[in-house]
Amino acid sequence: MNDSAPLSPAGDRHFDGLANKFAGSLYGGPRGALRLAMLDELLPAMLELDGQPVLDVGGGLGQLSAWFAQHGHPVTLLEPAGDMLEQAREVLCGLPVSFVQAPLQAIPERASGPWPLIACHAVLEWLSDPRAAFATLADGLAPGGQLSLMVFNRDALRLSNVVKGNLQKALDDRLEGTGRRQRLTPISPLCHDQIFSWSQECGLSIRSVAGIRIFHDYLRHPPASEDDWQRLVALELRYCQAEPHWRLGRYLLYTLVKESERSCKEDA
After folding, report:
1. Mean pLDDT for all residues in the chain
2. From the centroid of its chain, how far is CA 248?
3. How do the domains of the chain map onto residue ranges?
4. N or C end of the chain: which has fewer CB within 10 A?
5. What CATH number should be reported for the domain whose range is 19-260?
6. Which positions ≥6 away from 40 have C-beta within 8 Å?
7. For 34-61, what is each residue's pLDDT tens digit?
8. Residue 247, C-beta contacts closer than 8 angstroms, at least 6 positions apart
9. Contact 127, 103 (CB under 8 A)
10. Tens digits of per-residue pLDDT, 186-212?
11. Do 80 and 101 meet the contact criterion of CB atoms below 8 Å apart?
């Protein structure tokens, strides 16, 4: 494994060779379990689902693709990292999922659509130009199509740094990761105002938004029992779409809808 985990030539965070690290850090513990439990409740509530084809962009190890496939959707999983794609093939064997090894930027050539539903969870924050990536996602949608977007929340990252005592770092607004070694701090954490602005630029409307992991990361002690775990999940679900709590979710989950045929590139 290349321990330096360099950035790609385009400046995006490179995950080749880090599948096991990624799986252990993001899905191998309570954080990942909570994220998946929240999605299981929120996706049916936030999306209009009728078995339509889904493009899962940056689908990684296949957790989101599995959810859609198990709920009756044919899925195309787009993922640039070969080792992640190989693990996803094993996990999703027997499900209606096809696989394309390519980055988000290759959607026009490798998965052009137009798509009635695109899912892109925890991807934009690893890219050097998330605004351009957002435009690519919008252009891949069919008119009336839905984008399920999850991004790493810059405002929550600031609060987390303050809680950890990184006061000068928070004051200087030095929140981005470097994209090197095996640290998993995103290089482009995003805020709600950016998503709102880019949506207007690209002819998308925000139908709904929710915060993921509002309380979990600030617990002094992890849940000590199954009952405590269920109480935590219930709290997260109760307040994930309530003001002001959703704004400090570690991740922000959006449903965006394409209003017209207009392309973001036409406004560039």
Report:
1. 90
2. 16
3. 19-260
4. C
5. 3.40.50.150
6. 67
7. 999 999 999 999 999 999 999 999 999 9
8. 153, 155, 192, 211
9. no
10. 999 999 999 999 999 999 999 999 999
11. yes
